Amino acid sequence: MGNNAPILITGAAKRIGLFCAKKLHQQYPVIITYRTETPAIDTLRSAGIICLHADFSSQSGIQNFITQLKETTTSLRAVIHNASSWLSEDTVEDPAALMQSMLQVHVHAPYQINLACADMLIAEQPAQCDIIHITDYMTEAGSPSHIAYAASKAALENMAMSFAKKMAPQVKVNAIAPSLILFDEHASTAYQEKTLKKSVFGLEPGEVEIEQAIQFILKSKYMTGRVLRLEGGRHLPGER
Ligand SMILES: NC(=O)c1ccc[n+]([C@@H]2O[C@H](COP(=O)([O-])OP(=O)(O)OC[C@H]3O[C@@H](n4cnc5c(N)ncnc54)[C@H](OP(=O)(O)O)[C@@H]3O)[C@@H](O)[C@H]2O)c1
């Protein structure tokens, strides 16, 4: 496939993943995964983006996806682990099941997909290849309302370092750790006001912030095993 190897983005039928898939498709072939059918899928397929169904909530779901991917392509330019579930201990009855589901989507799936994709990425040599883990601001800060989510995203961030060592120099592996990028459509006004006050900029930057970070990583020839923190100065101490 030469330089035309596709970029795989997981969980990209809506929101940030969808935006990034469309933008990246202006320069690269793109494969996305989706769990739920959305109106966007038909549009993406018409535009030439390959859409593969994947549900990472079980081992068989992860394995089925890897089989489908190997039937779809023999090489990859990049893998972007975007699929995510932002569930809170405050809204579930079974914390053990919550932790298991967070580990499935944020740890088991990326771990197995990276191992399974290694040959497909290395098949691109001498072209440059990447793996990008989309994590979260909470990996450093923790979260009392999203304990399992934060812990599983911290594991995802840590895996970026291990895979960076394992796959160098053929593949760069980095993470992007955002705080607020895009409010959930159900976010209340009170929640939005409270969240906006947490960063020094006090704004919702939108999906483009992630897309630009991805573009930077794809172009870099020197950064691996690092975390790009897009948090609007939220980490800075002091009164706000
Ligand atoms: N939005 C923000 O402000 C923000 C802040 C910090 C970090 N991030 C990170 O940035 C990334 C994109 O954020 P987002 O808000 O656009 O994400 P999102 O809408 O919460 O979820 C992205 C996709 O992941 C899929 N997904 C969830 N569980 C899955 C599973 N078990 N198997 C397969 N797919 C699954 C979802 O599919 P379904 O629709 O079918 O459930 C969804 O389309 C995520 O990694 C997120 O953690 C976002």
Overview of the structural elements:
Helices cover 44% and strands 14% of the residues. By secondary structure, it is α/β, with parallel strands linked by helices. The protein has a single domain (7-230), classed as 3-Layer(aba) Sandwich (Rossmann fold), CATH 3.40.50. A seven-stranded parallel beta sheet has the order 3-2-1-4-5-6-7, sandwiched between helices. The chain starts with 6 loop residues before the first strand and ends in a 10-residue tail after the last strand. The mean pLDDT is 95. The structure holds NADP nicotinamide-adenine-dinucleotide phosphate. The site of NADP nicotinamide-adenine-dinucleotide phosphate has 24 residues, from helix 1. NADP nicotinamide-adenine-dinucleotide phosphate is lined by residues 11, 13-17, 35-36, 54-57, 82-86, 105, 134, 136, 178, 180-182.
